[in-house]
Each structure stands twice: as C-alpha cells, then as structure tokens.
Amino acid sequence: MKGALSWPFMRLYLLTLCYFSGNSILNVIIPLKGEAWGASNTTIGVIMGAYLLTTMLFRPWAGGLIQRHGPIKVLRVILVVNGAALVMYAFTGLGGYLVARVLQGVCTAFFSMALQLGIIDALPEKDRSQGISMYSLCSYMPGMIGPLLAIGIWQTGDMNMFAGIMLVIAVLTGGVGFTAKMDNQSTASTGESEPRNQSAAMWQSFGQLVQNPHLFKSSVLMLSASLIFGAVTAFVPLYAAQIESGSTAVYLMLQAAVVVAARFVLRKKIPSDGKWHSFFMMGTMSLLAAASLCVSLATNVGAILFYAGALLMGVAQALLYPTLTTYLSFVLPKENRNVLLGLFIAMADLGVSLGGIVMGPVADLTSYSMMYMLCAVLGTAMMLVAYNQRSLLAETTAEENKAI
C-alpha cells in the first residue's frame, strides 16, 4: 500500500490507537466513580473537562518544543508521563483524578500536534483528508470496546483489574511509541531563535481567530460541536440510568463504531479541494442537532431513540473534524498554517472541555434531558453559521452545469 495507508503511517495510526485506549475506559469510570463518591455534576464536569482544557492551554507551546528537541525525544518523555497518569487512577481519589487528567492533557497536547501536523506535511494534497480521517478513526476505535470493558470492571467492583488494565495500556503505548521512527529533519531546530520566533508567531496569530473568516467560521462550528460531544462523553454514563433499557456501554460503543465505520468508508467522500461545501456542512450540523434531540427525548420515548442518537452523533462526529481540518489546510496562509491549525485544534479541545464544565451546572440546575435539548438548539443554530450563500450558489450552478 502507499499514501495514507503505507506502513510508516499505519504505525502512527497504531500508536494513536494505543494512546487513546485508556480514555475509552476512563470516560465511563470517572463519572460513575465520581457519582459513587457523592460528587455533583459540576465537579464531575470539571474533572472530565480538565483533560482537554489543559491540552488546549499547552498546545501553543507544543509545536515550539517539538521543533527545538525533535519529535522522538518529546514523544518518549510524554509517553512516560502519560503512563504514570494512567496508573494514578487506580490509587487516588477525586483530587488525584484531577491531577491525572491534567497530566494527560499536557501529554495529548504534544502527542496530537506532532502526529497530525506530521501527517499533513508528509502526505500529498490528494491524500491529506484520508490521513487525517485515519488518525481520527484510530483515536475513536478504542471506544468500540472500552465502554463495555469499563462497565464490566464497574459491575465487578474489582479495582485491581482496573489497575492492571491501565498498566497494560501504558506499557503497550510506550512499547509502540519508543520503537517509532520519524523523519525529524523538517521539525528539528536549526537555531536557538527558531522556537522563540514560533512562539511569538503563535501569540501574534491569536487575532487571526477573528480576522481570518475561514478560521473564524470553522472554529465556531468546531467549538460548538465539540461542546455537544463533550456533554455526551461526560454525562451519558449517568444519564443512561434514567432511560428504560438504556445502557452506557451500548450507546458509546454504537457511537464509536459508527465513527470508525464512517471515517473509513466515507474517507474519500470528505471534500479535499479547498472549497467550502455549504450543503455538506449544513447537513453535518443537522445530524448533530437531530442526535442531541434524540438523546434529550429518550427519557420519554425509550432506548430506541437513545441509540438512534448515538448513530447520528457518530456520523456527525466522523465527518466534521476531518472536513474542517482539511479545508483549513488549503485556505490558511502557508507561512503560519501549522500555527493556525494548532489554534483551530485548540478550539476543538476547548469545546469538549466546556461540554463538561459548562453543561455540568446546567444539568444540576435543570436535568440531563433539558441539557441535551439545549445542545440540540445549539446544533440547529450552527446550521446558519455553516451556510455560505456565495458557496451555495456556486455549488448549485456547478450541479446545474453538470446536468446540462
């Protein structure tokens, strides 16, 4: 195989799969454990949100340090720290969970930046969307098994099993990561001033979040969608108990399976031409709104609607991130493309964090059902943001010309 499916890239995808395996279990265990310890939804949301909030804050520095020290050295350090964080969950309480989430967030800032930007830089334009989709696919594949494993651990109450599984994941991730090889010629620093220049460029580029219309539109969509994704991750393990025949494991496994299947099957359908496809983006946001509505109404209708929401959420999640990332890789200025892409990815991190931190108090004040109804309203509003009249007219004209 060649391109995005060649062996060097497959090895990176395997590392991604191992790295994110722990989270697929922790995303279920942490809310359940927190509720058992008497924590409020607000507290649980803060602990869950601390992970990607930390990732967002550290991401601006990740690129500079990777460029200065090289990706391999940085990768090996963060894999050791990530392994220590995974082991902490088995021996600490809520305070330790918060510390471990912060440590994982720091590691993920460096890990995801190195791999995603490396894939974008190494692949030709025609394969770029496939590479990003495959990376995202492998980050979600553990979600097909992890929730079921987490529920099994929780029901048995065997925390020694939990500790053992975290240790195995840490060792496997370290083994794959320590044997990985990357061409660091493009990322190694050639001078002491280069990291400083990149750091200065990062801070100067924050204004582009508002000034650049492509980055602004994409960031608003990603932030809003990620907030909904974060609310699902943080609170579905607790909300499922209120739904007749509802199962956290089944919901999360269905959603993850759809993400994986859609990203693989539809990877060649994701636009990779640098144009804004309004029909495609509005359709994706409508799926997200419909998914949130299904989840919200599931307490009255039943588990069928709950699981329908998982399917719709999975499709929307599979399409949105690689589509927007690929689009930005074409339209952003090349001289600071990687920096601006880092800011965009940071908005995705922030959104997932806000899904726990902001929606936790909403759930405390109202209910899980009302919280997901608000998510549906937000998804509907984002359809208007995704609308682009000029692009829409161009697409319609192109289709009419083809028909003629």
TrEMBL record:
Localization recorded for this chain is: Cell membrane
Alphabetized Pfam families for the sequence: MFS_1
InterPro entries cross-referenced by the UniProt entry: MFS, MFS_dom, MFS_Exporter, MFS_trans_sf
Please give the GO cellular component terms listed in this UniProt entry: plasma membrane
Quote one Gene Ontology molecular function term.
transmembrane transporter activity
Q: Which residues form the signal peptide?
A: none
- Key word Membrane present in the record? yes
Q: Tell me which UniProt keywords the record has, alphabetically.
A: Membrane, Transmembrane, Transmembrane helix, Transport
Name it.
MFS transporter
